[in-house]
Amino acid sequence: MSRLLSGQVALVTGAAAGIGRATALAFAREGLKVVVSDIDPAGGEGTVAQIRAAGGEARFIRCDVTREAEVRALIEGTQAAHGRLDYAFNNAGIDIEKSKLADAQESEFDAIMGVNVKGVWLCMKYEIPLMLAQGGGAIVNTASVAGLGAAPKMGIYSASKHAVIGLTKSAAVEYAKKNVRINAVCPAVIDTDMYRRAIEAEPRKAEYAKAVHPIGRVGKVEEIAAAVIYLCSDTAGFTTGIALPVDGGATAV
Ligand SMILES: NC(=O)c1ccc[n+]([C@@H]2O[C@H](COP(=O)([O-])OP(=O)(O)OC[C@H]3O[C@@H](n4cnc5c(N)ncnc54)[C@H](O)[C@@H]3O)[C@@H](O)[C@H]2O)c1
């Protein structure tokens, strides 16, 4: 795999834990300066500490991706610190509903759409002008296999991830000639806090989670991070507007 250029700058949202933390660590291993962002300062500073302990460069900027002023400040803070933004991984997301559509609450709809859809849109809204001004960049948004098909008892989440793919494709086409590539990654079940919370709530889900993947296990955060690094790298220079499943074969059956 061609590597990213040392000294470039990457931003990761939802980087206090799980997939975001693993990807922030992977960017740092590639020699990039990493802006770690999240609503959770303790977790975010934990990610920064791990990067620094491994000899990398990182800083934490707190941001709630549902708030435009905070997203604007995040991108302005990135520019002030580093003067550029080469790669953005818009990954912050929540999955809170546990019921069929008719039983879900309006507050759940608003919360899920706020983080998963509005958050991704707001991040791109402020990242893209910075990338255009410097001559290019690459963005990866976190969708899900739930954005490619049905997700029973997670219908609002599924709709939010379909929307992430819609935003990704439209943005990719709008900026394709401007050297800004925009793709989505679609994880299946990955072993993170989000997954462990779901298993705690319903332990029988663990066996089901393994069984939905023909590979026979849930995914690792590092396997999503590797896909993000690939999509950002020049190896993927002809790839824009895709929703890449990283799913142990789940969408093949
Ligand atoms: N874990 C899985 O099985 C799985 C599968 C498919 C897709 N995903 C997606 O991957 C992404 C990361 O999930 P994860 O499994 O690492 O979850 P996680 O809960 O471990 O991490 C999510 C991070 O997002 C942060 N966050 C939540 N709301 C935020 C907000 N408003 N602003 C900024 N940050 C916020 C949290 O504080 C947390 O650090 C999410 O978009 C999720 O929907 C996860």
UniProtKB/TrEMBL annotation:
GO terms for molecular function: oxidoreductase activity. It holds the Pfam family adh_short_C2. The keyword Oxidoreductase applies. The keyword Metal-binding does not apply. Gene3D superfamilies: NAD(P)-binding Rossmann-like Domain. Keywords: Oxidoreductase. Signal peptide: none annotated. PANTHER family: BLR0893 PROTEIN, DEHYDROGENASES, SHORT CHAIN. Belongs to the short-chain dehydrogenases/reductases (SDR) family. This is Short chain dehydrogenase. It comes from Cystobacter ferrugineus.
